[in-house]
Amino acid sequence: MKVEAKNLGVSYGTVWGIRGVTFSAEAERLAIVGHNGSGKTTLLSVLSGLRKPTEGEARVNGKEPYVRDDKWVAIRYSFEKPQFSIPVRVRDLVETLRANPHCQRVDELVEGLGIKEFLDHRLDGLSSGQAQLCNLLMALSCDAELVILDEPTAHLDSYRAGVIDDMISRLKGLIIATHDPEEGEAVADYFIIMKEGRIVWQGGRRDLFSKGVYEITLFDKESELPTGLDILHSLGAIVIARADEEFLSDLFRKGLIAGFKRAGLRYAYAESR
Ligand SMILES: Nc1ncnc2c1ncn2[C@@H]1O[C@H](COP(=O)(O)OP(=O)(O)OP(=O)(O)O)[C@@H](O)[C@H]1O
């Protein structure tokens, strides 16, 4: 998958949703990470072809997705806040998808996503998590050149979120927007961090893991921090610190910290805030 943007901007009247967005990502899975209002959904709306940019251009596999012609990229999009207003049952949606020869993964996903448990519920009466699961079923069960997911696990419990992340981390051709750097890191191989409509960091997995910077899990966030750590960010019981790996191994062996790992997207995200 190749996704490119050149000086991309989208304005909503006087407000710019995104501006000056330029990147070129050749990756199987791209994660767009950012806090609320940073421009993730706006960028996805252009990349999915739902919106024409106000300025600049975007290309997905060489084509501008918002220019409709017979060569447009087959994209499946799952929304952040799906709402179904059709008064039919989930079972009817499943049957409709099953009847489509391009949707070969329906049964596997109905089982894997736990949709079996609410097949007789009406689509217009689902909880937000159930609606999200049905939206994901529609996005993931049919053939597509590219799947675009906007906060796919925002309404899901941690078990279901894990199932989804594991599933989508195998896709070839995924763009995911998430406010959760852990989720981005778990599924993607190229990352864009957005802030106030602009890109503040981008890179691949090798760029991500900073040498000498670690995420350290404490047993008790109230306890005194071991000396010798250069703390960069404090995130509750997890701290991001510059430290020597041998020193951390020693703290771990002595039972003074619960664990540590190379800092990744959580660090890049914390740095960009
Ligand atoms: N329809 C709209 N009209 C006016 N401003 C908008 C509209 N949609 C988005 N914006 C503004 O554009 C900016 C980017 O919004 P966007 O929804 O793309 O961010 P986001 O990163 O997806 O946020 P969240 O994580 O909260 O969903 C925000 O300042 C938002 O207020």
Automatic annotation (TrEMBL):
Q: Which residues form a coiled coil?
A: none
Domain (ABC transporter): give its ranges: 3-221
The UniProt entry's GO CC annotations, sorted and at most eight, read:
plasma membrane
Instruction: Mention one GO biological process in which this protein takes part, according to its record.
Output: transmembrane transport
**Compartments, record wording:** Cell membrane
Leader sequence segment: none
Which is an annotated GO molecular function term of this record? Answer: ATP hydrolysis activity
Mind listing the UniProt keywords for this protein, alphabetically? ATP-binding, Nucleotide-binding, Transport
Q: Does the keyword ATP-binding apply?
A: yes
PANTHER family in UniProt: ABC TRANSPORTER ATP-BINDING PROTEIN ALBC-RELATED
Chain's role: Probably part of an ABC transporter complex. Responsible for energy coupling to the transport system.
Q: What is this protein called?
A: ABC transporter ATP-binding protein
- Give the originating organism: Thermococcus waiotapuensis
